[in-house]
């Protein structure tokens, strides 16, 4: 036991009634397995008022490694990890003092400090070149979106690429990726979209989690009406990026070139195609829409009922109805991006 450790133990014992710092005895050498388990622990035994008091001082460890259960949670759902913060959350470890009062025949637990390990997250990283790197909009895309919008006489069936987490639902516990809270009006909103438009669900969560969330959010009949339900496996990520907290990009070209999605176009047989004129991506993240920024209907992130603005999804519903009238969605969004109206009422 070092001088500093003895001093720390003495300070702790000063708060124990009836204990005097009469004797600080060096702890017996710990057996090897105990030594490996907690190298930083030091134990001292003090007598005071006829009682023995055993104090264990555990030195704080500066951990660079994440707790096992948190690593597991990040592996299970990198999207949840990526959605939470943009920087690592660092908590200072607390010194844990465990005090046991000892009498001749019995041991009384005076206090027990149970420390919950902090949920430390990795920083979001840039995807590797193997995963496609960071996309930019093409010149052709920007030129087309730059033109003036025009309104059709009748609405048409458009393609809606729908995000889940932060848009339709919120997962409060990152360790339980399948547990979620639904955004107000989410179910009726999705029912309306699935009835009137082509809807593709695309989340960056793992596919098994995505299918679980969709099964809870939608009825089996509604699920059948989804054009596709995609998860993390549809981003073209490398194996390492798939398991990492990497920024993902929803490149709409991936959606437009998919056979199942293409066949959902109302004029597919006559050469009709989905493109920037008839597609909207509904998502709470602007970065994910980096390759087609003017096709993004950016919705405020849903982080649970506290702080949620009223009637968010009903306003998104109205905006999508207007998009259905637009000859080119990217031109309209560029000029009239979605904005919430604080005075909106149903
Ligand atoms: Mg999201």
Automatic annotation (TrEMBL):
- Asked whether the keyword Protein transport is assigned, the reply is yes
Q: Where in the cell is it found?
A: Mitochondrion inner membrane
Q: Which Pfam families match?
A: NIF
For this UniProt record, give its keywords in alphabetical order, as a comma-separated list.
Answer: Mitochondrion, Protein transport, Transit peptide, Translocation, Transport
Looking up SMART domains in the UniProt record yields: CPDc
Highest taxon, organism lineage = Eukaryota
Predominant location category? mitochondrion
Show where the FCP1 homology domain sits.
153-323
Compositional bias, Basic residues, is annotated for 30-39, 60-70
Q: Which is a GO BP term held by this UniProt record?
A: protein transport
Extract the ranges annotated as region (Disordered): 30-97
Q: How does it sit in the membrane?
A: Single-pass membrane protein
Q: Name one GO cellular component term.
A: TIM23 mitochondrial import inner membrane translocase complex
Assembly mode: Component of the TIM23 complex.
Regarding protein family, the annotation reads:
Belongs to the TIM50 family.
The cross-references to PANTHER family, in alphabetical order and at most eight, read:
DULLARD PROTEIN PHOSPHATASE
Q: What does this protein do?
A: Essential component of the TIM23 complex, a complex that mediates the translocation of transit peptide-containing proteins across the mitochondrial inner membrane.
Q: What is this protein called?
A: Mitochondrial import inner membrane translocase subunit TIM50
């Amino acid at each position: 036991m070092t001088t500093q450790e003895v001093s720390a133990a003495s300070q702790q014992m000063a708060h124990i009634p009836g204990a005097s710092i009469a004797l600080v005895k060096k702890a017996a050498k710990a057996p090897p397995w105990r030594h490996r388990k907690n190298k930083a622990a030091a134990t001292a035994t003090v007598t005071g008022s006829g009682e023995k008091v055993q104090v264990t001082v555990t030195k704080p460890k500066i951990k660079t490694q994440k707790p096992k259960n948190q690593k597991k949670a990040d592996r299970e759902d990198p999207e949840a990890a990526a959605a939470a913060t943009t920087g690592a959350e660092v908590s200072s470890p607390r010194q844990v003092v465990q005090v046991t009062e000892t009498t001749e025949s019995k041991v009384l637990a005076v206090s027990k400090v149970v420390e919950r390990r902090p949920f430390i997250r990795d920083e979001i990283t840039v995807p590797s070149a193997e995963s496609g790197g960071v996309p930019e909009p093409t010149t052709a895309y920007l030129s087309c979106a730059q033109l003036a919008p025009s309104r059709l006489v009748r609405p048409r069936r458009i393609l809606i690429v729908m995000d889940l987490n932060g848009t339709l639902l919120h997962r409060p516990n990152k360790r339980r990726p399948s547990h979620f809270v639904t955004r107000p009006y989410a179910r009726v909103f999705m029912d309306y979209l699935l009835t009137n438009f082509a809807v593709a669900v695309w989340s960056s969560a793992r596919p098994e989690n995505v299918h679980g969330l969709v099964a809870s959010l939608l009825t089996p009949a509604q699920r059948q009406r989804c054009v596709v339900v995609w998860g993390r496996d549809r981003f073209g990520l490398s194996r390492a990026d798939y398991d990492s907290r990497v920024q993902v990009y929803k490149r709409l070209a991936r959606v437009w070139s998919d056979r199942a999605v293409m066949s959902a176009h109302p004029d597919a047989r006559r050469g009709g195609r989905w493109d920037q004129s008839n597609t909207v991506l509904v998502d709470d993240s602007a970065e994910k829409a980096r390759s087609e920024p003017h096709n993004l209907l950016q919705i405020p992130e849903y982080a649970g009922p506290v702080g949620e603005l009223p009637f968010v999804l009903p306003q998104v519903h109205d905006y999508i109805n207007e998009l259905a009238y637009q000859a080119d969605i990217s031109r309209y969004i560029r000029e009239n991006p979605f904005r919430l109206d604080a005075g909106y009422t149903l």
